[in-house]
Structures are given as structure tokens and as C-alpha cells.
Design goal:
This protein is α/β, with parallel strands linked by helices. Helix content is about 35%, strand content about 20%. It is globular, with a radius of gyration of 20 Å. The two termini are about 35 Å apart.
Amino acid sequence: MSEDWEDFTSGFVAVLGRPNVGKSALVNALVGTKVTIVSDKPNTTRTQVRGIITQDACQVVLVDTPGIHRPRTPLGARLNETANEAASDVDLVLVVVDASAPTGPGDRRVLESAPPECFVVVNKIDLVPPGELLKRLQELSAWNKAAYFPVSARTGKGVEELRREIMAKMPSGPPYYPAAMHGDTTETEWIAELVREELLAIVRDELPHSIATAVTEVEGRYVRCEIFVERDSQKAIVLGRHGENLKRVGTIVRNSLPKGYYLDLVVKVAKDWQSQARYLDQFGI
């Protein structure tokens, strides 16, 4: 790219919403590739994850955030802080709501705290009939925000229009990242997240919040990823019978890595880690 940015626009966009409205899926759809893990479990996203769109002399940095909720642990409180911090210094806020669910207290809290010029993204429109979607949009219009966008991150419907409107809102400025870069997650962070994503898919409702992952050693193509749970009984669930869960996760993640990588998965018990600052710091939360 040229160093003359006179005709270039760029900015940061915070993606906010309560848990399970599809924020991460929306970020992936807007970027056009997977930059953040996706799960149907609440608070899968635990840090600010950036997805980068660079096209037509414009760069948009999307900041995916944890779902805003009523915290019950120090982990929950930190996740809310992370989301609120993301909205404090950006050029645009996207508030994501679920088209297939009624507006609840969590949605109302986010909508009421969001600036008037925010975009309200009504996601999962593929799950509701047109008549119900119209009622949902009419209900949400009571918050008098700048614009409303019905989309489906899963099917892609409405995503291109939303992307164009986001780009049109960006102010003059230089690119913050190279044009070929789609996200700012490091390779080791990404491996740890992929391991957690696959574990969430396998253990389902049994212990999603109790799992944390971290790559603790990399030597050549050897990668050691440690999986932390809070109880010995949870360790048994992660391992599965005869270690089958861990083997399955290892195979899936290894197949997504460059050929020749050896992924060593180790399960550890960190008692009540969600309530201990030293563990939250260690896991970058």
C-alpha cells in the first residue's frame, strides 16, 4: 500500500450483545474467514478478538467481545469489563440481538447503554418467518438507534449490505494492519482456542465455563496445549472413556494445522480457577 493515506478510511468497530446472539459468527461472516471460535455455549469469547476487513481503500477492525451478562464469578465480571472497555474508544458500535428470541433484560441493558448512532444487527433471521421478523424490528425500533440490519451470519443473508454500511461510516485514516491480515490472534493463541472450541462441541452442557486452554510449550513442530478444569470429575469428562474425547479433539485440531505438527494435549486441575485472579491473568482474561 502507498504511504499516502489521503483517500483512505479506517476505524474500529465494537461488536456487543448478550451471550449467544451470534457475535463471533457475525464477525467471521463480515471478515469472510474464521478469525474467532464459535460455539452455542454462552461466553465462548473471553477476550477482545479482532477481525480485519481491508478493501476499497478502507480498513475496518472489528472487535469481537464476550457476551454482556449478570456476572456470578470473577471470570464473569472480567468478561463484562472486557466488553465494556471495547466500546469505550471506537468509531462505531454494533449491538447484536437474536431475531429468534424476545428482547430480554440482557438485550435491554446493552441497547440502553449503547450510543444513539450505533447499528442494531438483528441476527439469525433464518430462524424466524418474515412476519415475526417484522414484529421484532418494530419492537427494537423503540430504542431509536441509527440503523437496523436484519442478517443471518450463518447463511450470509444481509451481511454484504451491513459490511458496506460499516465501511461507509469509517473516518479518514491509515490502515492499522497489513492488507493480507484478517485477525490479530497469534498462532499459539489460535491453537489453544481451537482446542477449546472442539472441547465445547464434545462436552456440550457438562462443563463449558470450567474449561480453559493455553499453549505452554512450542519447540519446532511440537506444541503442548494444557487444558484446565476445576475438578477431578471434570478432568474425567474431558478425557472421556479410554481418553477418546481427548484423542478426538487432538485429531480434529491437528488436521487444521500445517502438516507435520505434533499436538500434545494435557489435562490439569486448577481448583476454582474462575474465581482466582492468578489463573485469570495466566489465561489472558
